[in-house]
Amino acid sequence: MSWPEARRRAHAAATALPQELVPLAEAGGRRLVADLTAPYDLPHFASSAMDGWLVVGEGPWTLTDALPHPGQARPVVTGQAIPIAELDAGTAAVLRSEHGETSSGMVRSVAGAAPKAGQHIRPIGSEAIRGETLISVGARLNPASLALAASAGVDALTVHAVPEIALVLTGDEVIGHGVPDTGFVRDSFSVPLDDVLHGLGARVTGVTRVGDDLAAITAAIQSASAPLILTTGGTGSSSADHLRNALSHLGGRLLVDGVAMRPGGPTMVAELPDGRLILCLPGNPLAAMVAAITLGEPLLAALSGRPMRAPRSIPAPDLAGRAATTLLVPYSITADGAVPTPWSGSAMMRGLAGADGLLVVPEAGLRADGVAESIDLPWVRPAR
User: Fold this and answer.
1) Other C-beta atoms within 10 Å of 25: how many?
2) Residue 234 and residue 341 in one domain
3) Which reaction does this chain catalyze (predicted)?
């Protein structure tokens, strides 16, 4: 299956999980289900933007503790309500404390700093009027947007679910600590995959490591309790690869049986009879990471109730393609555009570690004066 079709198939395979109403304190990083509109004008009362004096009319002003009339001033602090409707609004202003001085019951501006009418007064509705959209549907909620929601009197928000993922990591040759002996490799997945999947909008809820044993792999998948299961290794057809047989024993249905992409060609997507989805990654580190990023994202997007993220365009070098294959090449951004890494073998992580993204190189290759599609890495904030 072509890489673009595999991505479309992955996105179509998943159904959005139920939406959740969560307190503001738990909504950070979640995506909003519907527009958040202002339930009232923001701010809903006029207030002082500075410490100083509320003055009306021309100065100097006589100090008063009451509502000031023309020629009078009353001390105010930042945020204090100003009854603008009860004042001569055309001449009311706030004189900043550092721009005035008091003497003998009078306030005078200094250094010609008399305020203009309305200056340093926050008018009603200056941030938003009632019914105006404050945060748009689909927005990822950040600390500032949560503060905005709180200022609008909101205590909870309806957001898309965060998909849960169970990891099943296979391989007799994989060790978890230290330097591997000949014939063994260090675990390259259990630590980084948590961060990768979190960056794609998911939450890892369990990790199971099993050897290259059909019964153990079958049992691990059967017992994984999450709407999406991610496996590593065992996607080939050698005597040590048992994933296909495990899926067959479980009644799984292959939705994507290999992808015309490099690295990551042996990637599979399957569905179990109970509706759980499985993203089966190859065992080589770069191949698995590229597949997790480019095929995991559509699956997680659909589970989260949002569209698949489209690649973006960047200046591209002259790069040859490969027949009937999409190449996914780590690159770095320079003054001349995207520069592919020299470390792009399916088992190499060095190139991806310093990359700014993944170049999408179609069969026809790229032209030197053209542009390429780029897939963002979950841990890199792209320049736009």
Assistant:
1) 10
2) no
3) adenylyl-molybdopterin + molybdate = Mo-molybdopterin + AMP + H(+)
